[in-house]
Input
Amino acid sequence: MRSLSLAQRVVLVVALGLALLAVDDYMTPWSSGWFGYAPNTSITYVPEDGRLGHLALRGLLIAVWAAISVFILRSPKE
Output
């Protein structure tokens, strides 16, 4: 890891962030969208409120990204 230049390490950190964003998108259910009623029926649809779980997942992924980024971008020991 120390043989990489600073620019290469920055690219690695950005790629890691994008990979974790893809993980977040994959693990987050699509609960938003159209809701309300189906015309001419009495059926109602209210999406699940999973915002707290989504917030916790996103916070965890950001913490992982920050910790790994600090490890990757730290100054090499002289």
Summary: The first strand starts at residue 36 and ends at 37.
